[in-house]
Design brief:
The complex is a heterodimer of chains A (587) and B (343). By secondary structure, chain A is mainly beta. Classes of the chains: A mainly beta (587), B mainly alpha (343).
Chain lengths: 587, 343
């Protein structure tokens, strides 16, 4: 009996020891290897303050519930001083006063980046601005080789020209002020093929400050109704606009002639916009996410004359035909078929949509099948983008979330104003013709800071420290900016980052070009797009994760004028600048 | 004025097009739950905090919130405690849960079981068509969508209850037709879908506008027009009455009064009152016709003239209306009915 008891005791000890070891291993695994199996771990570290980004967003809520108070929070990354480090522009909101004016000036912020550390250069840059800042976009408007800035404000928008050293001057009467007070997003690109970038400006709703509607919501179980922001359904849609570049710092409104009026753009409630050559016919197309009206896909007929085809292409609505609350757009070739796929963030009780391209003009809503609905149905999604966070060649996805109603919890128990951001990790399955990709929502493994609830809006990706991986940046309403440095395990993995410099059709920014990269692991395609996300502009450099491949077999640039340029001598683990017709300039 | 639900004056094609906004939530006899994100109506509040672990066990709510895996697990448990004769709904829900996870072959099996058990339920056939679509069998998907739509239309006729979201099924049918390269057929379905969507959105928007601007006669008139387009005739008449109290000369509201009355038909009232009604409508039509610049006034006056057997006058109004509003297909349709030239 005693021997048997001892054996039992030993067995129990052994079991407890084993269990504690297993438990320890588990803990370790969760901390260091969030991805399953042999996937490398994706990890981000919040570093905004450490890196010098001291910015607290202010939506300027007045208690009068003007819709624009809950719609802002964009940002733009640009290399303002041409030093290769990406600087950050942050538009700021402020309260509307009783005379229907925004009284304060100089609230926007411009942070210069030097080697991954930011300093506030708002005053010297001249970008403090005035009015109520919502978002921004970037383009080389005057073809002088530097990045100019367009600021979206409630009211009139503003264009700033860069002197190449990070000093900006506002262009008065540029023609880009916008016809409606409430723009949704903007993006620069050369629509008419004259080598100068034009502007696509989405307009959200018609909004009259003096006659703004008042809305209320009573709790579902009864009780006192509370004032809320009137949603887009309360307002009439506004007309999107396209402006062609006069090549002298001014622009002309080309909307009527462009055919956009005939499409849904005349009364849509447009927010995010993405430009690129989606159908590979050497001109620039536009995809627009719309809030409660059908999304719009404008295919360029060559000279800024558009045909709107979203409904028949399957990207206007959900797979079931529902017009959803489209906010932001991500794009990328998720399944390596050399066609661009779209991802659109939507409102709560809907879900975000992944539109997978089947042919250049037919898409399927593949959200369910690819595992991208999970976690998005109770969220309100905004900024978003595809990145290869762990350099394993497939495109992961980040999504910013946050409700528009700051008091939603008082009348809708399922919803929260402050929501967490999501991160979907891509997982390639199969190979060759049987290759498919599946997404898993892995934000739980990215730590508390990434999941910290807030009402986020703008979200961008940038390699701010030029270490070859994409970092993420989020703007939460009324809170401090969040900059997430990518600290993923990338051992044995390589990258290539390319800045394209165009010439002629497409302009210096080369928006509309495509880059095809061949390595041992296969072929990857990237598009030089403009806009995307929500009210924001990400790092414009083309980024490839190469997995374990250490050699580039082939790099081809498909420029917007149809020229195909093969670039030789491409180093890996480098950021290179490729100029049309001249190959690699430096790295 | 009393009305009956008689739409005999509206061509059948037109009636289908305009009937969508009568849609109310249809509780099908089998009580199928909402399936996935493709369903339309916003859900009522529930006690499921989105950022906390899910404690909900009701499969309908789990499906609505996109917790497909949890819904599947729950349903598999429910199968064990539910007698086979009561499992029809479970098969439907399980198909939705599997579909939501992208498990298409398994979802197809469950949807087929559900359709066998509920051979008259259009919603089940719609789900089967959807899953078949996702399995890339577009030919079969088109057949099933058409079957589901026809079943829904038959159901509506038989019960006078609308099937919610029928136009969404047309959108899905169109997508299947596009995959088969049948763009012309697809465009017809998309056109019906687009019109339904526009009407629904207009009603929604104008309902809110009139709520915060209750003294705005123009908003009330536009609301009345949208309700008429959606064939919500009593509501449209009520909106007209509100509008005309605020602005007795509002041409659009007068036109909508005439159109609503004509859509209801004379059979709605006793024979003895027909002449009085015609005289009353003529007064409204005259108001609507003032300045001849309100297209809907011309449509209303033309239709009234047709009722009064003045074909020539009717055609004149329809032609003028078409000049003012060339995109409105109703003028061409009514010219056809009047036997005139359809340009």
């Amino acid at each position: 009996m005693r021997a048997s008891g001892l054996r039992c005791f030993q067995a129990l000890l052994l079991f407890l020891l084993s269990w504690s070891l297993i438990s320890c291993d588990k803990d370790k695994e969760i901390k260091s290897t969030p991805a399953k199996g042999s996937q490398p771990g994706i990890a981000f570290k919040e570093v905004a303050k450490i890196k010098g980004l001291d910015f607290n967003h202010d939506r300027g809520a007045t208690g009068k519930y003007h819709l624009f108070e809950t719609m802002g929070g964009g940002m733009a990354w640009l290399d303002g001083d041409g030093d290769g480090d990406y600087d950050l522009f942050l538009p700021q909101g402020q309260p509307l006063d009783d005379t229907f004016k925004f009284p304060r000036a100089g609230l926007n912020r411009y942070f210069r980046n030097d080697g991954g550390v930011f300093t506030d250069q708002t005053t010297s840059s001249g970008l403090g601005g005035s009015g109520y800042g919502l978002g921004a976009t970037v383009g080389d408007v005057d073809n002088d080789g530097d990045s100019d800035l367009y600021v979206i404000r409630f009211g009139k928008n503003a264009l700033y020209l860069n002197d190449g050293k990070g000093k900006f001057t506002q262009v008065l009467d540029s023609g880009l002020e916008g016809s409606a007070p409430f723009s949704g997003s903007a993006a620069f690109g050369d629509f008419d093929g004259d080598g100068w970038v034009d502007l696509f400006l989405t307009q959200y709703v018609e909004y009259d400050l003096r006659q703004a509607p008042k809305c209320q919501q009573a709790p579902a179980g009864g009780g006192q109704a509370v004032p809320i922001y009137c949603g887009p359904i309360t307002f009439k849609g506004a007309r999107d606009q396209i402006f062609l570049n006069n090549r002298d710092g001014t622009f002309r409104d080309f909307t009527e002639e462009s055919g956009m009026v005939l499409g849904g753009g005349s009364s849509s409630k447009s927010l995010g916009v993405l430009l690129g050559d989606f159908d590979h016919d050497q001109d620039l197309d536009a995809y627009v996410a719309c809030d409660t009206t059908p999304n719009l896909l404008y295919l360029n007929q060559g000279t800024a004359i558009f045909k709107e085809v979203a409904l028949e292409s399957g990207v206007a609505a959900s797979g079931g035909g529902l017009y959803e609350g489209g906010m932001g757009i991500a794009s990328g070739d998720i399944d390596f078929d050399q066609r661009l796929d779209f991802y659109v963030t939507n409102f709560a009780d809907e879900s975000n949509r992944l539109y997978r391209s089947l042919t250049p003009d037919i898409f399927e809503d593949a959200s369910l099948r690819l595992g991208m609905v999970s976690g998005t149905k109770t969220m309100v999604g905004w900024g978003t983008g595809f990145v290869d966070a762990d350099l394993d060649r497939d495109l992961d996805l980040y999504v910013a979330n946050g409700h528009i109603y700051d008091n939603v919890g008082s009348w809708e128990e399922r919803q929260k104003y402050e929501q967490r951001n999501l991160f979907f990790r891509a997982d390639i399955q199969g190979g060759g013709e049987n290759l498919s990709v599946k997404y898993s929502e892995v934000s739980a493994s990215l730590g508390a800071e990434y999941r910290r609830p807030a009402s986020y809006r703008g979200a961008t990706d940038v390699d701010f420290d030029n270490d070859g991986d994409r970092d993420l940046c989020f703007i939460p309403l009324d809170q401090e900016i969040r900059l997430f440095e990518n600290v993923s395990d990338r051992s044995g993995r390589h990258f290539l980052q390319i800045l394209l410099v165009g010439e002629g059709r497409g302009g210096k920014d080369a928006v509309g070009a495509r880059v095809e990269l061949k390595t041992q692991g296969g072929t990857q395609m990237r598009w030089r797009t403009s806009g995307g996300g929500y009210l924001s502009q990400s790092d414009p450099r083309i980024h490839f994760g190469l997995g374990a491949d250490q050699k580039v077999d082939s790099l081809k640039i498909y420029w917007l004028d149809g020229t195909v340029e093969e670039v030789t001598g491409v180093p890996v683990d480098s950021t290179i600048k490729v100029q049309k017709g001249r190959g690699i300039l430096n790295h | 004025m009393s009305f009956v639900n008689d739409l005999t004056l509206i061509p059948r094609k037109h009636m289908i097009r305009h009937s969508v906004s009568f849609l109310l939530i249809l509780i099908l006899s089998s009580g199928c739950g909402k399936d996935d994100s493709r369903q339309v109506p916003p859900a009522p509040p529930q006690n499921t905090a989105p950022q906390n672990p899910v404690t909900e066990t009701n499969p309908d709510i789990l499906l609505r919130d996109g917790h497909y895996e949890l819904a599947e697990n729950r349903l598999r448990l429910l199968f064990k405690v539910t007698p086979p004769e009561k499992q029809a709904k479970l098969h439907y829900q399980l198909a939705s849960a599997l579909h939501g996870q992208g498990k298409i072959p398994e979802a197809l099996v469950e949807a087929k079981k559900a359709s066998t058990l509920q051979p008259r339920n259009p919603e089940v056939f719609r789900l089967l068509a959807l899953i078949t679509f996702d399995s890339k069998d577009y030919q079969e998907s088109v057949r099933l969508f058409r079957q589901a739509i026809q079943m829904a239309i038959d159901f509506q006729k038989a019960t006078q209850k609308p099937v919610i979201g029928l136009h969404f099924w047309r959108y899905q049918l169109a997508q299947a037709l596009i995959r088969l390269g049948k763009k012309e057929e697809a465009n017809k379905e998309l056109e019906l879908y687009r019109e339904h969507q526009e009407v629904i959105q207009s009603i929604d928007r104008l309902e809110r506008t009139t709520a915060y601007r209750p003294k705005d006669a123009t908003a009330w008139a536009e609301y009345a027009q949208a309700l008429w387009r959606g064939q919500k005739l009593p509501e449209a008449m009520a909106a007209c009455r509100t509008c005309l109290k605020l602005d007795p000369m509002n041409k659009l509201a007068h036109a909508v009064v005439v159109l609503c009355s004509l859509d209801r038909g004379l059979d709605a009232i006793p024979q003895s009152q027909h002449e009085a009604l015609k005289r009353n409508l003529a007064l409204h039509a005259n108001q609507a016709l003032a300045d001849l610049d309100e297209p809907l006034g011309l449509l209303a006056a033309g239709r009234l003239a047709l009722l009064l057997n003045d074909r020539e006058r009717a055609l004149k109004y329809f032609e003028k209306g078409q000049d003012l509003d060339p995109k409105n297909s109703l003028f061409a349709e009514w010219q056809d009915r009047a036997g005139g030239q359809n340009p």
